[in-house]
């Protein structure tokens, strides 16, 4: 045994028995998965080949019937013409101008009408000369053609089909079907010919779907090419294309693995020999097509096996290491327990609200009594709860926890937390203990300081700074803060936005006649009418004196004018009643303006609304005017 093997055996037997069994189980599982994968790949390849063989054979059968149908139609036509030719004189042949000759010519011309692939139909005399034809010249001698000589020499043959060659009458590649006509003594009386272009068979092959690399081929028994799809080079038609290799597939009868001499592609082909005619038909499916899915599955399996082996090796390594580090883990747990005990003592002695959070599970492990008082529950009842549940907005703690993973320490962040049915404001500081926030077993020490009183005081001061002290509406400061934000959002997202500029008509007379106290009551009355008339989300503002503004988000000029009319009517129909019963009737003038594309800031829209208000004043007051667009 070599030294590395001895070392492996030593370390293996030094592992705990449970670890050795686990490693043996992993090895057995890997071997089992690999064996099943190989078996599945073999069977799936065999199945794919069988399906392809069946598809090729079925397609070959279908095409065989098509080709047979075409050949039989030509054969039947020749049989009809042969019966007519048997009654006609051939030596010497009739003049074509005579009635019988004319009728024969017309018959030869119209017979192919129902078979457009028949290019020419002719009747030859026993010497191979043209006696009757719709296209060939009378007297043309075809006896130099081998198959014509064959018929003249052996007229007892029923049908002869020529090899592909260029037809003399059309100049195109074709084949000739020739039938001898014998007289009563069994001697040759005439020869009936039908010239057929090779396109007659090519058209049968074009609608067969065989994949990107499949092919269909039709040859005669001497392997001369008659038709092929795809036909990459028409010059190959009529040439010999005998396969360089052809062996039975073993998947299905009449199917072979064939290497094409034209493109050198190996295909699984269904081959049919047309018994009645000297034709061979082959329908081939390429492995590139019918094994494409199998090869994709093979790549997935290979990648999966590599990944599985890598995972198995990694798992074996982990199992190996787990045995060696069992004692170290036990010692670490003991140290952690001691640290936790010391931390608990420190936390309980601290005057702050402190808590220890399991960073992985995000659950409270321990809190001191001050933390329980802050949240209005007993400290022991908080153990096991998620800290996020105690926040008014749980997503704030989740964001804070995410930041802790990167920074490990956060200082003095202000949040709202729950205390029963009320809420309190705290300053939070947190730090990750025993790691960087990514390792199992990390804890987070959280410190909370109650700043509810300070927060309430600051909120009240902020509200007062933005509120008109007389009417309780937003003041000029809040108008430009909030109004500018709303204006920018509307401009950025191309949403409608409008302003109403509102002014009390003859307000100076109210102050002069009834005093400033009554004037203040009028201002308050207008403020309340604005609050009940405007929509939720609109902002009513007192700019100063008797001038008010209404901020209308998501509102075009037409709807802004409607809102302005509601305000004007509400004011007109709601006079102020003093304590002595005196009615103080007052009205307002309103200017409306909608944000335009060239408005860059709120001030420009305010100027437009103020201009509209000026026109309302100039046109008699107690009315609404809109900005001139």
UniProtKB/TrEMBL annotation:
The keyword Transmembrane applies. Gene3D superfamilies: 3.30.70.270, PAS domain (3.30.450.20). It is an enzyme of class 2 (transferase). SUPFAM superfamilies: Nucleotide cyclase, PYP-like sensor domain (PAS domain). It comes from the Bacteria. This is diguanylate cyclase. It comes from Chitinimonas prasina. The chain crosses the membrane at residues 21-41, 296-320. Keywords: Membrane, Transmembrane, Transmembrane helix. It catalyses: 2 GTP = 3',3'-c-di-GMP + 2 diphosphate. SMART domains: GGDEF, PAS. PROSITE patterns: GGDEF, PAS. The keyword Membrane applies. Its EC number is 2.7.7.65.
């Amino acid at each position: 045994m070599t030294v590395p093997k001895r070392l492996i055996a030593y370390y293996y037997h030094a592992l705990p028995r449970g670890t050795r069994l686990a490693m043996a189980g992993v090895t057995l599982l890997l071997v089992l998965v690999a064996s099943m994968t190989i078996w599945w790949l073999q069977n799936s390849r065999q199945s794919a080949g069988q399906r392809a063989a069946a598809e090729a054979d079925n397609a070959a059968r279908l095409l065989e019937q098509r080709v047979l149908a075409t050949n039989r139609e030509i054969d039947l036509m020749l049989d009809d013409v042969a019966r007519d030719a048997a009654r006609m004189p051939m030596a010497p042949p009739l003049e074509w101008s005579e009635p019988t000759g004319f009728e024969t010519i017309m018959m030869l011309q119209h017979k192919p009408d129902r078979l457009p692939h028949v290019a020419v139909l002719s009747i030859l005399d026993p010497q191979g000369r043209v006696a009757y034809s719709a296209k060939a010249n009378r007297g043309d001698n075809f006896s130099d053609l081998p198959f014509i000589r064959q018929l003249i020499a052996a007229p007892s043959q029923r049908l002869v089909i020529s090899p592909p060659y260029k037809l003399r009458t059309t100049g195109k590649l074709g084949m000739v079907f020739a039938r001898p006509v014998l007289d009563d003594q069994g001697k040759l009386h005439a020869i009936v010919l039908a010239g057929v272009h090779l396109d007659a068979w090519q058209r049968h092959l074009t609608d067969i779907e065989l994949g990107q690399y499949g092919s269909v081929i039709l040859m005669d028994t001497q392997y001369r090419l008659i038709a092929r799809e795809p036909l990459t080079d028409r010059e190959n038609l009529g040439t010999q294309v005998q396969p360089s290799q052809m062996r039975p597939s073993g998947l299905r009868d009449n199917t072979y693995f064939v290497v094409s001499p034209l493109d050198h592609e190996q295909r699984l082909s269904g081959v049919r020999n047309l018994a009645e005619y000297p034709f061979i038909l082959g329908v081939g499916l390429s492995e590139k097509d019918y094994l494409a899915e199998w090869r994709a599955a093979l790549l997935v399996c290979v990648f999966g096996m590599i990944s599985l082996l890598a995972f198995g090796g990694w798992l074996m390594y982990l199992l190996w290491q787990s045995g060696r580090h069992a004692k170290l883990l036990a010692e670490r747990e003991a140290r952690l327990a001691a640290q936790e005990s010391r931390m608990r003592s420190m936390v309980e002695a601290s005057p702050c609200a402190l808590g220890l959070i399991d960073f992985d599970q995000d659950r409270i492990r321990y809190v001191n009594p001050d933390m329980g008082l802050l949240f209005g529950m007993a400290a022991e009842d908080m153990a096991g709860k998620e800290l996020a549940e105690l926040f008014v907005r749980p997503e704030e703690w989740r964001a804070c926890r995410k930041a802790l993973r990167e920074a490990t320490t956060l200082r003095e962040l202000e949040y709202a937390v729950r205390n029963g049915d009320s809420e309190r404001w705290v300053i939070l500081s947190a730090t990750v203990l025993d790691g960087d926030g990514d390792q199992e077993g990390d804890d987070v020490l959280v410190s909370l300081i109650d700043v509810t009183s300070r927060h309430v005081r600051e909120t009240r001061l902020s509200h007062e700074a933005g509120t008109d002290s007389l009417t309780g509406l937003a003041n000029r400061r809040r108008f430009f803060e909030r109004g500018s934000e709303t204006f920018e959002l509307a401009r950025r997202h191309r949403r409608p936005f409008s302003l109403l500029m509102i002014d009390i008509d003859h307000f100076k007379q109210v102050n002069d006649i009834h005093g400033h106290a009554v004037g203040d009551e009028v201002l308050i009355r207008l403020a309340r009418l604005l609050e009940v008339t405007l929509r939720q989300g609109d902002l009513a503002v007192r700019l100063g004196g008797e001038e008010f503004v209404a901020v209308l988000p998501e509102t075009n000029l037409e709807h802004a004018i409607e809102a302005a009319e509601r305000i004007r009517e509400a004011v007109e129909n709601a006079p102020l009643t003093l304590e002595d019963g005196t009615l103080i009737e007052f009205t307002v003038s309103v200017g409306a303006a909608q944000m335009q594309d060239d408005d860059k800031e709120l001030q420009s829209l305010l100027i437009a609304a103020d201009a509209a208000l000026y026109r309302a004043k100039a046109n008699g007051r107690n009315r609404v005017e809109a900005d001139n667009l």
